[in-house]
Amino acid sequence: MITCLEFFSGIGGLHHALNVAGIDASVAKAFDMNEVANKVYQHTFGSAPSNKAIDRLTVKDIERYNADCWLLSPPCQPYTRGGKLQDSEDQRAKPLLHLITLLPKLSILPRYIFLENVKNFECSQSREALVNQLDSLDYYIQECLLSPTQFGIPNHRLRYYLIARRRDTPSDSEGYIERAIIHECWPFDGERIEFKTPSISAFLDLEETDAEQHLVPEKYLTKSNNFRFDITKPSGHQTSCFTKAYGSHHIQTSGSMLQTKNLEVSSYDWAHPESLLSLGLRYFTPTEVARLHAFPMPPWKNETTDTQEPSVNSITPRQYEAPHCTPHLKFPDDIKIIQKHRLLGNSLNCWVVAELYRCLMFID
């Protein structure tokens, strides 16, 4: 069994992805300072993450777990416009940089390292420090920018991923960063695969469609003249990226809204946003967002039932199927809807990560 450490664990997306991928692995310890996320993580997995600051972890703190694998999803703000693109000068980048400096001090290096972050990380100083350190320690590195839409999931969420495996023998080649390729197609090599993408209706809670608590407030719509909201219908096959601000008054850039009435209307009068009020626009529920992010969930009535035959080759890319492996993602009863949206907006797509685990990282 592979023993993992999960840094910046959030609600456990990287942990869930191990189960979705069917990897024989366990998470010895997770680390995060977000109290609400840690509460959800413990409620789901039954173990509480450490809230010790990651940039204060010592070699002794890490070596006590004898981990074969590091899973990392560090804060994205240092690499976004909203975070002012301060990169390594941002205090929120310090924990990752600290882990990078700790690596060569370990008596036994982890065999596997996986990192997820936003687009722009690939051109950051933090990424440069990371890949240079991994290269010097004889890791085989692969990098990519991929979205769930490329895997047959109707949600656009472009993210950077790094997959690193320790070489059995030292490599003669040097200077990885000068010859690095950031892959933007899935799979990386070989013939392109056209995955079937289910409609959005396959992810919906139909009984909640008209729930008052999920309707977009009228005041948020009518104040936004000439803004082209991302409106999608149950019959559609794509949603935009959900951010941590989803479900709040930040409706212009935080994710798609679902049209539940007058479904024959497809042409919208953006100059007169009051015309949108008859469309029954609502937010996707946290449960629906979690499904679109491919978190393991209990089976639901409306999900797609198409299944595929298991592949003889375990590293063959799979057609998306709703994952139901346990444990399921579970929120404690006292977590508010807006908190759920915030946590999910900060998380990742478990299916994408699971496929990268299966096909690229755990292939020894």
TrEMBL record:
Location of the active site: 76
A single GO cellular-component term on record: nucleus
Protein name: S-adenosyl-L-methionine-dependent methyltransferase
Keywords attached to this entry: Methyltransferase, S-adenosyl-L-methionine, Transferase
Gene Ontology MF: a single term: methyltransferase activity
UniProt KW Transferase keyword: yes
Keyword S-adenosyl-L-methionine: yes
Gene3D superfamilies registered for this protein in UniProt: DNA Methylase, subunit A, domain 2, Vaccinia Virus protein VP39
Family: Belongs to the class I-like SAM-binding methyltransferase superfamily. C5-methyltransferase family.
Gene Ontology BP annotations: methylation
